[in-house]
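Posting here for the record, re: MTE.
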Amino acid sequence: MIARFRSTLLIIVLTCCLSPASAAGIPMPEGQVILTVTGAIDGTNDSGTAVFDLASFESLGLTEIRTDTPWTDSTTSFEGVLVHDLIARVGAAGTNMRAIAWDDYTISIPLSDFDTYGAILATRRNGDPMQVRDKGPIWIIYPWSDFPELQNEENYAKAIWQVRELIFE
Ligand SMILES: Nc1nc2c(c(=O)[nH]1)N[C@H]1C(S)=C(S)[C@@H](COP(=O)(O)O)O[C@H]1N2
Ligand SMILES: [Mo]
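Prediction output follows.
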């Protein structure tokens, strides 16, 4: 009897902690979905994709980058989710991340960039969430000031704003 109860308890504990949606720790969105992550990922919360609202996305953890940019007058503080951290949370595989914006601009970025430079999916500029008119709600930001080799057209093209979808491939 006790043994049976203990094995039932074990099954309950395993089921709760290993269920697919929570295993990778991908929170469920409660508000408007602003980002869909798809492709070669194994952590999902919505039939093969991982979807986020602003709060659930920021709950992955924010990292700050202070940098000059071609779009700002002075050194600016951006905060957002390290792409490296997102990759770990959704269990992304592959060699590239293709990003698609609301204006359908798209760019494919080698995953090696995210180890080398620590780029973020920025949601905040000087502490405040970025509105759509300010290139929000998500803008890929690199620490351009720290890496002179990034200060060229090829790399500024990776600074995609109004990101709506990420595809790992
Ligand atoms: N959403 C979105 N992001 C974008 C673009 C765009 O058209 N739409 N243009 C990209 C390119 S090609 C470059 S070089 C930089 C700089 O764009 P800008 O010179 O128009 O400011 O933003 C990048 N991010
Ligand atoms: Mo460009």
